[in-house]
Amino acid sequence: LPTEPFDLVIFGGTGDLAVRKLLPALYHRFVDGQIPASSRIVGVAREGLDDAGYRAQVRDAVEASVPQTVAATLDAFIGMIGYRSLDARKADGWEEFAAMVGEQPDHIRVFYLSTSPELFVDICERLGSFGLNGPRSRVVLEKPIGRDLASANAINDAVGRVFDESQTYRIDHYLGKETVQNLLALRFGNALFEPLWNSSHIDHVQITVAETVGVGHRAGYYDRAGALRDMVQNHILQLVCMVAMEPPSSLSPDAVRDEKLKVLRSLRPINSSNAGQFTVRGQYRAGAAEGQGVPGYFDELGSDQSKTETFVALKAEIGNWRWAGVPFYLRTGKRLPTRVSEIVVTFRQLPHSIFDPASGPLMPNRLTLRLQPDEGVKLWLTIKHPGPGGLRLRHVPLDMSFATAFGVQQPDAYERLILDVVRGNPTLFMRRDEVEAAWNWAGPILEAWEASGETPKPYTAGTWGPSAAVALIERDGRTWAEDA
Ligand code: BG6
């Protein structure tokens, strides 16, 4: 179904995210007929470009990311796009910008802040001063919201003085990924899982978000962030919430977010007293990625004075009745051997085996949810190896690849989320209290690392992080899932 006509203004319109992700995502939705033709998309940045210059950039970006474009459709899409050169910290041009946005008062207005969080406040204040914060306006805040609890609160307070919480969409694109939403369907649409979804039946959970890329030209941003701020505080904790939350009473935005919040608030604190035991930090050195030699982090940064982690492994615990004693092993990093994001739920060992040990090992059941690539779900079961030759046990997956099962390309997370904003559905966006709870847990970890004075452990690009990450889980008699 098409949305209502809208004006979408992307601050940071020439940035990497806008060009590589947001504009191609909008193109896909346009092709599918969901964006009414009178809608407008306006890129805003400081660069002194005109409409034609920006349109040429967008055309290149769409052509680079979409294998086959239809010329007439792409022309129509490009025709919706405009550009305004503005500096959030200077008044020049804002009046003309406000007049332009005000031309279509019946449109939904979305202000997408794809900029550094330091600019969020200035931009919102200017939007407010021109009255662009009326009831049909919405603001989207890209992560990271601040760099700790205090700065996140300062941003949320300032944005909150201009936009109501109901107009504020804090985006975490992991919540737009198909498999993440499928967790809701799997958990709450089947009788099979929920009765087993607790510490009596689940041994542990692993979440791996591995990337082969390095920090490349994002080193400036990344060095101030690091893996915990860039991936764990937001994306990975959101995945933890989706796995661990209680059944919400409905899919209404607050019913879901209330349950996620309870998970975040139940995370057991990690601080100076236990960070050494529960966390491992790494930083890559030169090595290989996808068969090619690649530089180390210091080379990309242009300095060897950084303590920023490009890899983190953690053992998290959720202190509530459902999850007491079930570790959640989390790991993420740049320059790992393969690009994979996966949630692996390992059930408990059987209490007793009736089989001859010669039949083969009895492995615990495992449910693997693969977010990317090859999105899908695998449920590992023990079965009898077919044929004569006695009862030989095999551990095999019931394997559902979404692409094979449904024969469709999975939409990019941003496609769904941008249209959710236009439609006014905040279910898959973070509420302010979630961001606070996530920082409340992540902040003391960062402080503990800082206080320790230690540097992250080096690892060679193209390996699974420092060996201490393996030790973190093996100490507990478990291993990182091998299909991760
Ligand atoms: C972003 C991080 O939020 O997510 C990046 O800032 C990371 O560092 C990216 O590469 C990963 O997203 P995806 O969808 O490619 O897994």
TrEMBL record:
Keywords attached to this entry: Carbohydrate metabolism, Glucose metabolism, NADP, Oxidoreductase
Documented EC number(s): 1.1.1.49
Gene Ontology cellular component terms for the protein in this record: cytosol
A GO molecular-function annotation: glucose-6-phosphate dehydrogenase activity
GO BP annotations listed: glucose metabolic process; pentose-phosphate shunt, oxidative branch
Residues given in the record as NADP(+) binding sites: 46, 143
Domain of life from the UniProt record: Bacteria
PROSITE patterns in the cross-refs: G6P_DEHYDROGENASE
Pathway involvement of the protein, from the record: Carbohydrate degradation; pentose phosphate pathway; D-ribulose 5-phosphate from D-glucose 6-phosphate (oxidative stage): step 1/3
Pfam families with a match to the protein in the record: G6PD_C, G6PD_N
Residues annotated as domain Glucose-6-phosphate dehydrogenase C-terminal: 184-480
Gene3D superfamilies reported in the protein's UniProt record: Dihydrodipicolinate Reductase, domain 2, NAD(P)-binding Rossmann-like Domain
Active site per the UniProt annotation: 235
Catalysis performed (reactions): D-glucose 6-phosphate + NADP(+) = 6-phospho-D-glucono-1,5-lactone + NADPH + H(+)
Residue ranges occupied by any Glucose-6-phosphate dehydrogenase NAD-binding domain in the UniProt entry: 9-182
Residues annotated to bind substrate: 173, 177, 211, 230, 334
Family the UniProt entry places it in: Belongs to the glucose-6-phosphate dehydrogenase family.
Annotated function: Catalyzes the oxidation of glucose 6-phosphate to 6-phosphogluconolactone.
UniProt cross-references to HAMAP family, sorted A to Z: G6PD (MF_00966)
Protein name: Glucose-6-phosphate 1-dehydrogenase
The encoding gene: zwf
